[in-house]
């Protein structure tokens, strides 16, 4: 257990920062926890830190202690509208690495214009929950290899849940896929949250891009949601991904907010 003592302001008790677990730090003022910090390692190896502090000096002291204990680079996520949070991280050395747009996506095909969209010749859409697990996992591996060889997986959405080493498809029932002949060539992952389902990933094999495969997957999934009475879904898109932003902007999706990924090198 690592402990660091920090002086407090004139009206505050001294703050003690203690590393209580491998991935967790506490800020204590006397016997009261006045802040906590934690760390998560993403599947691509990046280390993300987060801090929740409700004491005037605890935030900066937690960051200082965590930076001393952890290897660089370190990453964090903030809501771009939260200027105070963004400033706090910037004051301790974090800078903007990228921006992700949060979209609200209508499901009504009369609004999206996807009612007439059909898969390209030779492609069929396999609904979520019906994909064969073996070919789905093979597609996921192939897509990851293609992405790593080009833009890198770090360019993909930042909100990726930690997963066991080597496991990239945790719940096959969340995936709709595009099938061609004896292989899967594209996928869409949907987290079926009751209030606001979230589109987590749309990806198509390199040889099948620019044929309308992604639009066909999106048309199928959004249409299915609409038929169950769900009026909209959510999606996050890296602002540098021109194809994805054009796809969502083109179907009437609305940019609701934006998140910033910050890095300290």
Mind sketching the topology for me?
Blueprint: E1 2-6, E2 15-21, E3 24-29, E4 32-41, E5 47-53, H1 58-69, E6 74-79, H2 83-91, E7 95-106, H3 109-112, E8 123-126, H4 133-149, E9 175-180, E10 183-191, E11 198-204, H5 213-227, E12 232-238, H6 242-249, E13 254-264
Parallel strand pairs: 5-6, 11-12
Antiparallel strand pairs: 1-2, 2-3, 3-4, 4-5, 6-13, 7-12, 7-13, 8-9, 9-10, 10-11
Please characterize this protein's 3D structure.
It holds the Pfam family Acetyltransf_10. With 265 residues, the protein is an alpha+beta fold. The protein folds into two domains: 2-71, no CATH class; 101-259, Aminopeptidase (3-Layer(aba) Sandwich), CATH 3.40.630.30. The protein contains six helices and 13 strands. The longest helix is centred in the middle third of the chain and has 17 residues, at 133-149. It starts with a strand and ends with a strand.
């Amino acid at each position: 257990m690592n402990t660091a003592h920090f002086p407090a302001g004139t009206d505050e008790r001294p703050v003690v920062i203690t590393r209580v677990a491998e991935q967790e730090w506490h800020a204590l003022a006397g016997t009261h926890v006045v802040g906590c910090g934690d760390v998560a390692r993403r599947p691509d190896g990046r280390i993300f830190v987060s801090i929740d502090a409700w004491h005037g000096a605890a935030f900066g002291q937690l960051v200082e202690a965590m930076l001393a204990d952890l290897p660089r680079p370190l990453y964090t996520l903030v809501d771009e509208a939260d200027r105070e949070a963004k400033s706090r991280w910037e004051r301790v050395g974090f800078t903007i690495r990228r921006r992700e747009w949060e979209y609200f996506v209508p499901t009504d095909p009369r609004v999206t214009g996807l009612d007439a969209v059909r898969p390209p010749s030779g492609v069929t859409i396999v609904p979520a929950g019906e994909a064969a697990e073996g070919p789905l996992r093979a597609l996921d591996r192939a897509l990851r290899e293609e992405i790593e060889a080009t833009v890198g997986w770090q360019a993909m959405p930042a909100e990726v849940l930690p997963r066991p080493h080597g496991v990239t498809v945790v719940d096959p029932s969340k995936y709709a896929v595009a099938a061609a002949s004896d292989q899967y060539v594209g996928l869409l992952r949907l987290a079926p949250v009751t209030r606001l389902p979230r589109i987590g990933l749309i990806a198509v094999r390199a040889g099948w891009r620019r044929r309308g495969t992604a639009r066909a997957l999106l048309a199928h999934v959004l249409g299915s949601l609409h038929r169950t009475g769900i009026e909209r879904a959510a999606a996050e898109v890296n602002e540098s991904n021109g194809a994805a932003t054009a796809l969502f902007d083109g179907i009437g999706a609305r940019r609701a907010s934006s998140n910033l990924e910050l890095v300290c090198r």
